[in-house]
Design a protein that fits this description.
With about 70 residues, this protein is of the alpha+beta class. Helices cover about 30% and strands about 25% of the residues. It has one domain (about 10-65). It is built from 1 helix and 3 strands; from the N terminus they run ββαβ. A 3-stranded antiparallel sheet has the order 2-1-3, covered by helices on one side. The relative contact order is 0.26.
Length: about 70
C-alpha cells in the first residue's frame, strides 16, 4: 500500500447541500424522488436538473427540487 497523501470525510465538505428532486405528476418508480448531496448548492441543483432532464423533456411533467429539512 502507498503513502496516504490526503483523507476525505464528510467533515471535508462543511457547506454540503442535500436536496430532493421529485416529479409532481407521476408515480413511475424509475422517476421516484432522488436525493443527492453535493459540495455546493449550485452543484446539487445542477446534478438534479441533469438527472431529471430526460423525464421532463419526454413527458412534459414538472419536477421540483427541495432542500432537505
Amino acid at each position: 500500500m502507498g503513502r496516504i497523501v490526503a483523507e476525505l470525510s464528510p467533515e471535508s465538505y462543511p457547506n454540503k447541500m442535500t436536496m430532493i428532486g421529485r416529479c409532481t405528476e407521476c408515480t413511475d418508480p424509475s422517476w421516484a424522488p432522488k436525493q443527492v448531496t453535493r459540495e455546493t448548492r449550485r452543484d446539487t441543483i445542477a446534478y438534479l436538473k441533469g438527472w431529471f432532464q430526460p423525464h421532463v423533456l419526454d413527458t412534459g411533467h414538472r419536477v421540483v427540487i427541495e432542500e432537505e429539512e
